[in-house]
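[recover] target loaded
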């Protein structure tokens, strides 16, 4: 989409990402190893993607000493849904590790930031920026909206400060600029705790999203990949079923 109208680009981006194929929340449990992998491979939203209620329900059903591995490939989404997911992870007594397999942008970074560790795949990206919204009304309504966005940005900045050790001023500057970090840059700037040695096709997995409303998207993410085979989701379910069967046999 070629337009300089930010609102139009934002609305188109939201529509495109909301229309991506919705899949049930994918959780793979290995109770014998006291591990659970939660895949956040979607927009973060209560209606159109990965939502806080589903994740809260799954986490509540885990033993308290379960190591949660959150695999993330998300362009972000609703800030409050992201905050609720982050709170669920932060309140889990066991270890939580976030693995950025493709993209952690916007609200997805809030989810990652709640983890004890953030591991970036080589080729993955981590993006921070100021919060967005769409508003309507008179000048008072817009002033109220702007004040709310400023408060949200302040809370997000405080999270980044705590994670990275940077000053508030440094973080605000990075958010104002809509900063995209490579895996190594995220590590160098304190947003990630490590970079995985090798994860195949991490960059390609981030290309599925419409990122048109963002300003500084890396060129590597602008070209969309070929559509995934239609049987990919069924194959994943079958693989998960085989894993669970093996786990059951190992504990029998």
């Amino acid at each position: 989409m070629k337009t300089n109208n930010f609102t139009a680009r934002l609305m188109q981006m939201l529509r495109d990402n909301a229309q991506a194929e919705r899949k049930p929340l994918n959780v793979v449990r290995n109770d014998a190893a006291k591990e659970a992998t939660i895949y956040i491979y979607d927009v973060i939203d209560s209606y159109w993607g990965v939502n806080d209620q589903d994740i809260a329900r799954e986490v509540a059903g885990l033993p308290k000493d379960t190591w949660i591995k959150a695999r993330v490939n998300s362009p972000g989404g609703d800030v409050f849904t992201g905050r609720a997911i982050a709170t669920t992870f932060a309140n889990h007594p066991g270890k939580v590790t976030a693995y950025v397999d493709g993209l952690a942008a916007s609200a997805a970074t809030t989810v990652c930031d709640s983890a004890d560790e953030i591991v970036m795949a080589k080729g993955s990206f981590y993006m921070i920026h100021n919060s967005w919204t769409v508003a309507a009304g008179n000048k008072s309504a817009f002033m109220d909206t702007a004040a709310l966005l400023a408060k949200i940005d302040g809370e997000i900045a405080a999270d980044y400060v705590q994670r990275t050790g940077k000053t508030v001023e440094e973080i605000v500057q990075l958010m104002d600029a809509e900063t995209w970090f490579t895996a190594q840059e995220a590590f160098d700037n304190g947003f990630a705790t490590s970079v995985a040695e090798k994860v195949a096709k991490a960059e390609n997995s981030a290309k599925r999203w419409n990122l048109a409303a963002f300003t500084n998207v890396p060129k590597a993410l602008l070209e969309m990949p070929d559509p995934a085979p239609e049987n990919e989701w069924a194959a994943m379910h079958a693989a998960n079923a085989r894993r669970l069967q093996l786990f059951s046999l190992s504990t029998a």
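[recover] notes: The longest helix spans residues 139-164.
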